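Module 6 notes. Inverse folding takes a fixed backbone as the condition and produces residue identities as the prediction. Think of it as a translation problem where the source language is geometry and the target language is the twenty amino acids. Below is one complete input and output pair. Work through it position by position during the lab.
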């Protein structure tokens, strides 16, 4: 049929331009030959075409800076492998810092079926990545106080103990229990009890060093993971600061509540795991609480 070739070419052009992802055609050297509408529109929104026709994809990757440099190098290596025929497909999730903020893309490259070169595509997955980050945060943090939960605490304690086993640092664990907290809940209700726990968490954060981990185990139980060359002395200093901080009344809608905190400290020993250190710190806390009665 006359004109079939022209019609087919027009259809292919229309399909290429209509693709929702950002798509570019690269030659054998990684130079951009052609980009679709989604690629051009994103370039305009992001402040200008940084990788338009005539631009070297590898040159753009080489100019990446900061945290993006490592991912750009991986993307360049993957695309090069496709162009060299080492692999039939390359895919990876890539974070890009743009004037629009940090955006995430699923990048993929496949060889062109005819001739040399590759088809490179970027599909934005920022919303999915942000959802994954939020889900990961919720899985590792206490929803009331925002502090690390038991899962994250044990993970950080295990890493600290592993570092201590290599002789890099020593590890101390503070186990803290709010005195008479059950009476607060029974008298004023859980809304006031929750407000007290949030305030306790806020004060604990102010008592520790930047590298320490404050977390909530459950109920009114909190812990501090303290690692460093002088962890024992640092833990003692933190305990004294906590004692001073908790001497101040906690203001709630019913008035001012005076609460104390019983603290137990355990040092990590060779061969300890996280559960063992937590157990000893818990026992030390109960001894301290018994001495306060």
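Target side of the pair, the amino acids:
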């Amino acid at each position: 049929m006359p004109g079939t070739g022209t019609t087919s070419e027009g259809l292919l052009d229309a399909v290429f331009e209509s693709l929702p992802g950002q798509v570019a055609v690269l030659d054998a050297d990684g130079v951009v030959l052609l980009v679709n509408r989604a690629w051009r529109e994103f370039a305009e929104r992001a402040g200008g075409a940084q990788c338009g026709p005539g631009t070297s994809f590898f040159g753009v990757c080489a100019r990446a800076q900061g945290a993006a440099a490592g991912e750009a190098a991986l993307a360049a290596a993957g695309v090069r492998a496709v162009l060299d025929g080492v692999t039939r497909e390359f895919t990876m999730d890539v974070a890009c810092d743009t004037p629009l903020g940090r955006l995430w893309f699923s990048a993929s490259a496949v060889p062109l079926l005819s001739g040399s070169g590759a088809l490179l595509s970027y599909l934005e997955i920022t919303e999915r990545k942000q959802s994954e980050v939020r889900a990961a945060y919720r899985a590792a943090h206490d929803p009331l106080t925002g502090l690390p939960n038991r899962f994250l605490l044990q993970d950080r304690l295990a890493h600290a103990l592993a570092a201590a086993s290599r002789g890099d640092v020593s590890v101390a664990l503070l186990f803290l229990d709010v005195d008479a907290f059950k009476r607060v809940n029974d008298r004023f209700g859980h809304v006031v009890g929750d407000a007290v726990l949030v305030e306790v968490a806020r004060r604990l954060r102010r008592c520790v060093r930047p590298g320490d981990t404050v977390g909530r185990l459950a109920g009114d139980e909190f812990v501090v993971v303290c690692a460093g060359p002088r962890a024992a002395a640092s833990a003692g200093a933190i305990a004294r600061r906590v004692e001073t901080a908790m001497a101040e009344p906690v203001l709630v809608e019913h008035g001012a509540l005076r609460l104390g905190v019983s603290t137990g400290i355990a040092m990590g020993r060779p061969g300890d795991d996280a559960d063992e250190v937590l157990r000893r710190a818990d026992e030390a806390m109960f001894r301290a609480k018994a001495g306060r009665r």
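Reference fact for the lab report: The CA atoms of residues 28 and 84 lie 8 Å apart.
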